[in-house]
Amino acid sequence: MADIEQPAFLAIGESLQHQDASQTTDIVDENEMAPANPFEALQARLQDHPHDVIAWQDLVNFAEDSGDFKLINEAYSSLLKVYPNTIQAQIAYMRHSQRAYPIGKPKLVDQDVIPTPQTLFSQWLKQSPDVELWKLYLEYVRSSQASSRDVVKKAYEFALRFVGQEREAGDIWKDYIEYIKDDPTSNERESQEKMDLLRSVYRRAVQIPIDNLEQIWREWDSFENGLNKLTVGPPP
Q1: Each residue of 160-169: pLDDT tens digit?
Q2: What pTM did the predictor assign?
């Protein structure tokens, strides 16, 4: 099953029902020839009735339960052709892709069985205003062994360029700030660059009505007060 807060087929079904509240389920023709297996039967059903929400739920459920990456790929790719903006489906599909291509370990499938995470991110990110998908992208970049700290920072800037103005992006701003704080420095120049970047990110974040604005504002105030004490130094 997908590694999300609730079963993927349930979350996806709720989303599809919201998108197609006005759709009604058509009656199946009992005289049609039965396909070879339940998955194929559902695929045949959806070819004739592409907005049958229950059938989509069943198709995703069957694929998830099978654990077969080929079926999972067929179910999600088909679903997203009909409902391309279903974020729950995108995230569940992405997590299966990440499971098929674990970072730092041998891949579990060939690339023609299910797309790589890089392929899916390249298809969806720039078109998606959904903060959760961007957080998943940042999680993936940070966990990649090939990602240097500069690459991760560029990934944060990339994400903030697209969704940084969203109220729900507060966690991304906060994570970026914490990531910069953890930057190691070896000389005065690097320390100054780190402080300058932190100040810049704080200033940008507090201009946006993000959901954790008050927390970030307090942290910025504490940060600036700490710098001022260092600059002034102890009394003689």
Answers
A1: 999 999 999 9
A2: 0.81
